[in-house]
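Appendix B, Record 12. Input sequence as logged:
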Amino acid sequence: MRHKFGHKKLNRTSEHRKALIKNMLNSLVKYEQITTTLPKAKVIRPEAEKLITIGKKDTLANTKKLVSKLQNIQTVNKIRKTLSKRYLERKGGYTRIIKAGYRYGDNAPMAIIEFIDRDLEAKRVDKKKNKVEDKNKETTPTQKTA
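Logged structural output:
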């Protein structure tokens, strides 16, 4: 029984743990799927579910709550405009955790945490669009400084 245990500490100080959770939540919302260790995924899951629930009711107070929690306006806008509309009919259970074996170096249990009905293109947000553009950039002459 875990009576009176508030949260998992993840072997970190409170400041480090808060920053870790905030960064992982931002990544989860941005890419809609991340790979992490199983204990971290289990800590992040209820936090992500709460964010979507807050984002469903689009008020100024809820927007301020999301901004204070995530500190990233692009992530907040994605929650308010995209994710909350996607899960409007769903009453909960917006994420899933899939066990993904063990990490090679330290044998830590790995997991994939993702949104249900996720957008497959969200994983490629930061990827370069065309390789043709990259080749054009490489072939342009560089200026030499004297």
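DSSP finds five helices and three strands in the chain.
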